[in-house]
C-alpha cells in the first residue's frame, strides 16, 4: 500500500516577480491527492515588487526574505531548514512543474523499498537525459557525462540535515558540488521522467558572461573548491575534468585580477598536451591589462 507523501516546494527568487508567478501557479495547478503541499518562497532581498505580489495574490504561501542577496545556495539551504515536511522539492523561479509532476514523483518514490537510504532523488527537467529510465548515479556518472542537462531534486530533509549536506554558500551557485558529494558517498536514484519545464526568458542569469565577469572572484574560489575537494576523484575517474577545472580557475582568477593564482593553474595545465597551446596563450594574456583581458573574454567566451 502506498503511503502518504507531503511535499515542501522551495523556490529561491531574486527580482523575478513576473516569472515567479508562473512557477507558483504551476504548483497550485497540480492535482495531488496523496499528501499535503506547502510552498516556501526564499527571497534574496528583491528590489522589485516580489513581496507585494506574494502578499496580494499568494498570502497563504510561506514567505521568507533574506537581509541581503547571498545567492541561490544560501536560499535553498534556508528553505530546507524551514520546510514543514520531510520531502523537499527545489524549483527555480523561472521554471515550472509540468502537469501531474507531483503524482509522477509520488509513484516513483513509492517504488523504493527504503526511502531513507538516500538523501536525494532526481527527476528530469525538460533538457535532462540519462542512459536508462532509472539509474542510481555515482560520481563517475557525473564526471563522465552519463547524466546531461538539468534535474529536479527531491530531498529527504531528515537525512540531509543529519548528514550535514548543503548547497555551497556562494552567490554563483555551484550546486553540482553537492551532487558530486552525494553521488560519491550514497548514489543518487534518478528517473528520466520529466517533471519540470525549463525556460530561458529570465533577463539576468548567472551563466551569462556579464555575470561571470562581475562575480569572477567567486567563480574562481568555487573552482578551487572543486579542485581541492574532488581532485583525487577526478584523477581516478576522469582526469580531463580536473584539467578543465584548472582551466576555468585560471580564467576566473585572471578576470578577478589575481594573476599569481591564475598563472599557478596555467602552469599546471601546460604539462598537459591537450591544454599546452591554450595555456601558453593564457600565460601571455596574463600580462595584459585587465581591461584587455575582460575584452578578450567577452569576444571568445
Automatic annotation (TrEMBL):
Example of a GO MF term: transferase activity
Glycosyltransferase 2-like domain boundaries: 8-111
Transmembrane segments: 275-297
UniProt keyword terms in alphabetical order: Membrane, Transferase, Transmembrane, Transmembrane helix
Pfam families on file: Glycos_transf_2 (PF00535)
SUPFAM superfamilies: Nucleotide-diphospho-sugar transferases
Protein name: Family 2 glycosyl transferase
Amino acid at each position: 500500500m502506498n503511503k502518504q507523501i507531503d511535499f515542501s516546494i522551495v523556490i529561491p527568487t531574486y527580482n523575478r516577480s513576473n516569472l515567479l508567478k508562473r512557477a507558483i501557479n504551476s504548483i497550485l495547478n497540480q492535482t495531488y491527492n496523496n499528501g499535503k503541499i506547502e510552498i516556501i518562497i526564499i527571497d534574496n532581498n528583491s528590489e522589485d515588487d516580489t513581496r507585494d505580489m506574494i502578499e496580494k495574490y499568494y498570502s497563504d504561501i510561506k514567505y521568507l526574505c533574506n537581509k541581503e542577496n547571498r545567492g541561490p545556495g544560501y536560499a535553498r539551504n534556508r528553505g530546507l531548514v524551514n520546510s514543514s515536511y520531510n520531502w523537499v522539492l527545489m524549483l527555480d523561479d523561472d521554471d515550472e512543474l509540468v502537469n501531474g509532476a507531483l503524482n509522477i514523483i509520488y509513484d516513483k518514490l513509492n517504488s523504493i523499498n527504503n526511502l531513507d537510504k538516500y538523501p536525494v532523488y532526481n527527476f528530469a527537467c525538460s533538457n535532462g537525459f540519462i542512459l536508462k529510465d532509472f539509474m542510481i548515479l555515482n560520481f563517475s556518472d557525473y564526471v563522465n557525462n552519463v547524466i546531461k542537462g538539468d534535474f529536479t531534486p527531491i530531498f529527504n530533509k531528515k537525512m540531509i540535515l543529519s548528514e550535514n549536506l548543503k548547497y555551497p554558500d556562494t552567490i554563483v551557485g555551484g550546486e553540482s558540488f553537492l551532487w558530486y558529494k552525494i553521488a560519491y558517498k550514497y548514489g543518487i536514484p534518478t528517473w528520466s521522467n520529466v517533471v519540470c519545464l525549463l525556460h530561458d526568458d529570465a533577463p539576468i542569469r548567472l551563466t551569462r558572461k556579464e555575470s561571470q565577469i562581475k562575480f569572477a572572484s567567486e567563480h574562481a574560489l568555487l573552482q578551487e573548491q572543486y579542485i581541492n575537494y574532488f581532485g583525487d576523484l577526478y584523477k581516478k575517474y576522469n582526469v580531463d575534468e580536473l584539467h578543465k577545472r584548472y582551466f576555468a580557475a585560471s580564467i576566473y582568477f585572471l578576470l578577478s585580477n589575481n594573476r599569481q593564482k591564475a598563472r599557478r593553474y596555467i602552469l599546471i595545465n601546460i604539462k598537459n598536451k591537450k591544454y599546452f597551446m591554450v595555456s601558453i596563450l593564457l600565460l601571455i594574456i596574463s600580462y595584459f591589462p585587465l581591461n584587455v583581458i575582460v575584452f578578450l573574454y567577452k569576444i571568445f567566451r
